[in-house]
Each structure stands twice: as C-alpha cells, then as structure tokens.
Amino acid sequence: MTRRTRRVEGTMIVQRRAVTAVLAAALLLTAGCSSDDPGPPDSHGSPSLGSTTAQSSPSGPATAETPPAKGAVKVVRTVATGLKSPWGLAPLPGGDLLVSSRGEATITRVDEKTGKKTELGEVPGVSPAGEGGLLGIALSPDFASDHMVYAYFTAASDNRIVRMLYNEKKPPGQQLGAPDTVFRGIPMGFVHNGGRIAFGPDKMLYAGTGESGNTGLSQDKESLGGKILRMTPDGAPAPGNPFPDSPVYSYGHRNVQGLAWDGRQRLFAAEFGQDTWDELNAIKPGDNYGWPEAEGKDGGSGFHDPLAQWSTDEASPSGIAYARGSVWMAGLRGERLWRVPLKDTEAAADPQAFLEGEYGRLRTVVAAGGDKLWLVTSNTDGRGNVRDGDDRILELEVK
C-alpha cells in the first residue's frame, strides 16, 4: 500500500459550454511514472511489491453471464500488421476497423478480412509528445445516420474531444471532415493524459482522464483531471450525474485508460498505479477512488477499493473489454492479457494471464461479439521492443 498526503492545488477547468479557464499544464513528472513514460519502458517508480491479488468490491448487480471456472485464449489470426503507434480502435458496423495513431495523428480503416489499410485522414491540432497525441476513438451511437467519429487528443494547451464526419466516398486521406470540438479543458501533461472514450449503454459519452502529473487534481472535483467524465454526445454534463452541472462521474483516479460495461451495464475502469498497485475498478457514480491518498486496496478509509489489483510490472493496464462473463485487460509493461472473471457474488475470482510476452506490449482490447476480441499491440511508440510486423491487430477467441 502506498499512501500520499501531499495535495497540489488544481486549476479550475470547465467545459466549453461554461467559461473556459486557462490551464496551467503540469509537466513535472511525479516520483513514479506511468507505463508510457519515455524513459525506461513501463517505469512506475520504485520496483513493484508483491504478486497478483484480487479484492472483493461490490459495485451494483452481478453480471448475468457466469464465466467458466478456467478461461482460455486462442489467437485465431493476425488481422493487420505494420501499424504505427496504434492507440484507439473502433469497429465499424460492417465489420471493418478504425484505428488511431498516437504519433501520426491519423485514423486508418483496416479491412477486417484482408488487412488492407486505408488512411481516412489526419486529425488537425494534435500535439504528440510524451504520452500525448491522438488517443481514443469512438463511433457516435447514431453512426448509421450521422457518420460521426469521436476522438480524444492532446492539443497544445489541453486534452480535448472532437467529432468528425466520416465520408468514405471521398479520396483516401480526405475522408475526415473538419473537427467539431465537443469538449475541451482536460489537463494535459507530458504524462498521464488518460485518453479512452466510449459510449455507454445509456448513449452517453464517457472519458477516462489522467492527472497530468499533478496529483492534486485527482481529488479536486472542480478539475477534469484524474476523473471519469460522463457527458451527452454534444459535450454537456449528462443528466443524472452525481455532481450538479458537472461532467465528473467519479474521481480520485491517477490515469484511466480502460472503460467497459458488463452484461448488467456495470462500468469498469483500468487505472495505472505508481509504485505498487495497478487497478481494475468497478465504477459507482460519485465515488472517490483514492489517488493520491491511496494506491490499491486501502480498506475502511472511505475510498472505493479496486475490484482487482496487480503489481506494476505485471500489468500497466490500458484498454479493457467485457466478454464471456469476464473483464479482459491489456497490459503494457506486463505484456500480457489479463482475464478477470466476475462472480455472481459481485466479487472477482483470481485473475488469469494469457499471451505473456508473446506479442509485447498490449494497448487496446475491444469486444467483437460472442467469444471474439480484437487486440492491438503497442511496440512502435518508442517504449517497446519492435518485432517484425509490429504493430498489429489480432483476432482472439476467448472463453
């Protein structure tokens, strides 16, 4: 357990429908670093302590699907190779895949059957540096009619969310319309920019943010850093949020990069720890997840304890997905895919690791229906050992 008592004053930030404040972006590294630091790969700070553990943490109704006692993973095929710093993945209704490049600031369409890559275009205004760049992408819940692609990226002064019209009838490289800024003012830094976005079962837009290296922002409910945000597709605070007129859905996070819902519409989030514990959290609106006062399971402090936790060299989690009664979590420094079965008792059984070291760093995992997952590697962003064919998208069969 690592405790932090020092609190740094955060900068008041509001989304575009209110008055936009000027961000004082915190570029100083914390004593521990996330797995995307440009220094030693996956360095969190001091060496990790302890082995894999899982904790019980109720968070709403149990899942409807009971997972098998012992899981399995089969790599069915490699869908695509030669991707540059891939980060976000969004399946299209017809089966093809959109993938974002953090460093290139481009979105590419991958033919799910042949692996052929077609660049849609470059997203303007992206400032790739450190852990920043073009990060998560998501399709509008009304994509069939509005053809909107949402993207989370690091700009010169902040992290923001935009939406762009995708017109596949135009020539390659010109298929993205001008970005419409939906939400701005999320703190940016050299590290801890969060970046995952997803539309929930309620058709609201969720975003995982980081504290940008300024730990005090996580406990500041007036800041957008170190939070899970929930908003309408137009960027307004979503109806029913726990704090009046605020997009903040939960707080006390360090660097959220994984969001997924189970069969009963429970939200789960993966989070980078610092020196000791990485976390999988079951999210309840308005709850405080402890950072920087607590890292990992704290017990009895008023913070929401993680559902499962890992030593930092085993995980460094990024994307997560739900399939076959389990949460599947991609590990960067850990270079493995974790399975966390969800019991009817609302507790997590012991996590299981798959693909350890076989494909290097794993960035994003997305459910593809039934027992199928898409898995994206992350070795070409300057932090991994590049292998022939990197980076790639894999099709997995799981149970």
Automatic annotation (TrEMBL):
Keyword Repeat: no
Keywords: Signal
Chain intervals for the UniProt region annotation (Disordered): 34-70
Pfam families in UniProt: GSDH
Signal peptide bounds: 1-36
PROSITE patterns: PROKAR_LIPOPROTEIN (PS51257)
Extent of Low complexity compositional bias: 34-51
InterPro entries: 6-blade_b-propeller_TolB-like (IPR011042), Glc/Sorbosone_DH (IPR012938), Quinoprot_gluc/sorb_DH_b-prop (IPR011041)
Domain of life, source organism: Bacteria
Domain Glucose/Sorbosone dehydrogenase: 83-383
PANTHER family assigned to the protein according to its UniProt record, in alphabetical order: HEDGEHOG-INTERACTING PROTEIN (PTHR19328), HIPL1 PROTEIN (PTHR19328:SF13)
Official protein name in the record: PQQ-dependent sugar dehydrogenase
Record organism: Streptomyces lancefieldiae
